[in-house]
């Protein structure tokens, strides 16, 4: 079962600890009403910072894709080719979800499933108990995609470009209103390993060892992203967040070794064309910036603030610089201090973190 690690409201626990120590030492107790007010104030402040950082992080993440060499605004390759890729009937395959939580991970798909192999009883009429005892294919999974979305065909296109084995088709079922609904099905080899944060050996390691393993994972992942970019002739995988990266670890004499790193999910959004190959130093700076934004939870687990915490940053002339945040003008945002070709402006719908913070303070 996958565990999503996020930020916690650390202010709440901090207040409780201070009050508990004061009462235990015999110090004068703070009146209950004042405790509640202080608690609410700190909780409101921490929640405001948490929400603000998430908006800032997402803004930074979008801006990291807005590079002169990334075709960020183009439709994904394979767009609108669902009829071409999903024309084989796979309805006869029996599948079941990997787990409830994993079903919820795919924002742009309908879940990941394991394939049930035929029962070994030799009977063509399987009972319900036979189905429960059927084994699963240990090597393949099925990903269902929404065929009403024209970008569903972008994933098989990207898999083929990256020379990754797959098969596609469709699975049909009857809806509640009696209509036949078709889902696109992508059969792929199951990737070994698991996300780094699921390894107990990493969770329980000393902070210095955790950080070393994190940086080693980052370096190996950079090599994979670079190799895929070259192999696919210019397609760039940008969605290497924690659950899209599997690792295999081993430990000897309390030293953790990153044996392998695997990159998952080649679907929309996340795979972009590149118009040119940037200089090595600029490409590595871009990757490190995006890794720090997508893996910000890991720094929290190390007891550190994420890089660029509460700062608007962007990549300008191959360097990460702090920039002025978005300015609200009607329903559009004008981003200044950021080069986007000759215009030097980019308009994008976005909420203002500062405006949200002001509203929360007013209501506290």
Order of strands in the sheet with most strands = 1-2-3-5-4
User: What is the number of E strands?
Assistant: 13
How confident is the prediction overall: mean pLDDT?
A: 76
Helix proportion: 25-40%
Largest sheet: 5 strands, antiparallel
**DSSP strand content:** 15-25%
Query: Termini distance?
Result: 38 Å
Give an account of the 3D structure.
It is globular, with a radius of gyration of 24 Å. It has eleven helices and 13 strands. It folds into four domains: 10-46; 82-189, no CATH class; 192-310, no CATH class; 324-364, no CATH class. By secondary structure, it is α+β, with helices and mostly antiparallel strands. It has helices at 10-24, 32-65, 82-85, 100-103, 128-133, 154-161, 200-203, 207-231, 280-294, 296-301, 353-363, and strands at residues 94-97, 112-116, 136-146, 166-174, 180-189, 235-237, 245-252, 255-263, 271-273, 313-316, 319-322, 327-329, 332-334.
Keywords summarizing the entry:
two-stranded antiparallel ribbon, alpha+beta, Kinase-like_dom_sf, five-stranded antiparallel sheet, 364 residues, single chain, globular, 4 domains, 11 helices, disordered N terminus, Aminoglycoside phosphotransferase domain-containing protein
Please give the structural blueprint.
Blueprint (H helix, E strand, L loop, with lengths): L9 H15 L7 H34 L16 H4 L8 E4 L2 H4 L8 E5 L11 H6 L2 E11 L7 H8 L4 E9 L5 E10 L10 H4 L3 H25 L3 E3 L7 E8 L2 E9 L7 E3 L6 H15 L1 H6 L11 E4 L2 E4 L4 E3 L2 E3 L18 H11 L1
Antiparallel strand pairs: 1-2, 2-3, 3-5, 4-5, 6-9, 7-8, 10-11, 12-13
Helix pairs in contact: 1-2, 2-9, 2-11
């Amino acid at each position: 079962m996958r565990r999503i690690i996020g930020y916690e409201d650390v202010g709440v626990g901090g207040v409780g600890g201070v009050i508990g120590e004061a009462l235990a030492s015999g110090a004068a107790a703070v009146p209950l009403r004042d405790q509640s007010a202080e608690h609410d104030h700190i909780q409101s402040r921490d929640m405001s910072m948490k929400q603000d950082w998430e908006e800032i992080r997402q803004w930074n993440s979008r801006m990291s894709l807005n590079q002169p060499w990334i075709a960020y605004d183009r439709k994904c390759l394979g767009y609108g080719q669902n009829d071409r890729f999903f024309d084989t009937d796979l309805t006869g395959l029996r599948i079941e979800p990997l787990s409830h939580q994993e079903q919820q991970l795919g924002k742009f798909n309908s879940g990941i499933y394991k394939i049930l192999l035929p029962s070994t009883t030799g009977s063509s009429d399987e009972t319900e108990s036979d189905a429960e005892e059927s084994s699963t294919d240990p090597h393949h999974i099925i990903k269902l995609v929404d065929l009403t979305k024209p970008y569903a065909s972008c994933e098989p296109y990207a898999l083929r470009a990256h020379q990754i084995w797959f098969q596609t088709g469709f699975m049909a079922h009857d809806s509640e209103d009696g209509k036949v609904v078709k889902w696109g099905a992508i059969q792929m080899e199951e990737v070994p390993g698991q996300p780094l944060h699921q390894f107990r050996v990493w969770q329980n390691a000393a902070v210095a060892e955790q950080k070393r393993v994190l940086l080693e994972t980052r370096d190996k992942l950079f090599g994979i992203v670079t190799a895929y970019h070259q192999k696919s002739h210019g397609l760039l995988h940008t969605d290497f967040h924690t659950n899209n990266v599997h690792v295999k670890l081993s430990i000897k004499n309390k030293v953790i070794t990153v044996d392998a790193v695997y990159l998952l999910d080649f679907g929309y959004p996340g795979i972009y064309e590149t118009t040119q190959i940037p200089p090595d130093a600029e490409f590595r700076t871009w990757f490190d910036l995006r890794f720090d934004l997508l893996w910000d939870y890991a720094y929290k687990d190390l007891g550190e603030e994420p890089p660029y915490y509460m700062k608007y940053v962007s990549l300008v002339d191959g360097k990460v610089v702090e920039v002025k945040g978005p300015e609200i003008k009607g329903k559009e945002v004008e981003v200044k201090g950021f080069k986007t070709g000759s215009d030097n402006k980019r308009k994008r719908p976005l909420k203002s973190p500062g405006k949200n913070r002001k509203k929360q303070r007013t209501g506290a």
